[in-house]
Design goal:
Length: 89
Amino acid sequence: MKQEDLIRNIVESMKMDLYVEAKIPEMHVCFLCGRIGYKNLPMKKIGEKWICIDCLRELKETLDSLEEWEQELALQKEFKKDLEKGFNR
């Protein structure tokens, strides 16, 4: 009985190895976070690299707020110029 279980486990292990080897081409690594994407983690190819949905969402949020960020930087530059003008008088 134990020998049958051992043989069954070995066969199942070999089946799993073959399955994984067959699915490796469908798996991709996110170039930002390093997570491996398959069915549960959608991935998108950008050029030659892959990005996971989570990193893509973060990137989108950052890009969506880019205009606000640029406005803040412009205000900082303007305040700096005003301060420099005040000290040069």
